[in-house]
């Protein structure tokens, strides 16, 4: 029998017996039956790793389906969460829906569920980001921010479900307290975080769907616009939209200096030197130059669009740094964000690492 893919992509020829099973088909059996060419494109190094398989049409050479398969029980929970999120988003209008993978079905690998979804097309923003001098050119960076701002505005308008406080919920604070229990200076970090939440709490925004991990690796571009947004495992059906605004800006800033030798000036950013981890985020938040101006303008403009004051941009950014410290899978990555938050949120004049 022929199973038509959601979103109008080409059909798969599956046996009637396989399609009728109540239990998910084994992953590799599904791949063989599809008649499509498999390509493993991602082997995550995170503690709870997933790997991705793209199924490509042998006739056209175009990606038709993508499969995300877990390698641990925790990763399986993330895959299931992404499946639920994609099902929730399936009724968006055609323009938005075309940028989000469509849930197709679940298959099985080593007793765990793997997600089969439609493939979205485009070039990873991460690819262009890493091209020589891409982030050194103001016009290139402005185009990236503008493309994301346009997509975010449309997505958030389309998924409003109520009203939310601009302040983060209490989960991040509790997670930080538990994750870093006994760490020197933790009480001070939590006090600074509570102060930030207190300053943000009087303000509200619409409550919308949230991606939760909006950074260059999860964004695809085509002709200057966002053509795909992938990896929805941290998504929320009804959350705080400022989270996605802050996450994109922060992650874009974080890697500005990663390809520059320690101590050297970062191309295109006259006052930024590659130095301590997170120096480029400190530069974006507290430094001077065209990139900090763009970074802050992006936060201000999107906060105003959401009905919050532009002046809340810095607290929103710092709350985003703390969120990564609380929730990131990778312990080292999370710890570095905690240290970065401590530097940025200090009531004393912080050492401006990387700012000449």
Structure overview:
It is built from 13 helices and 15 strands. The chain has 356 residues and is α+β, with helices and mostly antiparallel strands. It has a 5-stranded antiparallel sheet, sandwiched between helices. Helix 8 (186-200) packs across helix 12, helix 9 packs across helix 12 (313-327) and helix 10 crosses helix 11. The longest helix is centred in the middle third of the chain and has 21 residues, at 138-158.
| Level-1 CATH class name of the largest domain | Alpha Beta
Instruction: List how many beta strands DSSP finds.
Output: 15
Name the CATH homologous superfamily of the largest domain. Answer: Aminoglycoside phosphotransferase (APH), C-terminal lobe
Which regions have little confidence, pLDDT < 50, spanning 5+ residues?
1-21, 349-356
- How many helix segments? 13
Which structural class do you get from the secondary structure elements? alpha+beta
Biggest sheet, open or closed, and with what strands and sense? 5 strands, antiparallel
Helical fraction equals 40-55%
Estimated share of beta-strand residues: 15-25%
Q: What series of H and E elements makes up the topology?
A: EEHHEEEHHEEEHHEHHEEEEHEEHHHH
On the 0 to 100 scale, the average pLDDT is: 90
Distance separating the two termini: 66 Å
CATH topology annotation of the largest domain: Aminoglycoside 3'-phosphotransferase, Chain: A, domain 2
The total number of structural domains is 2
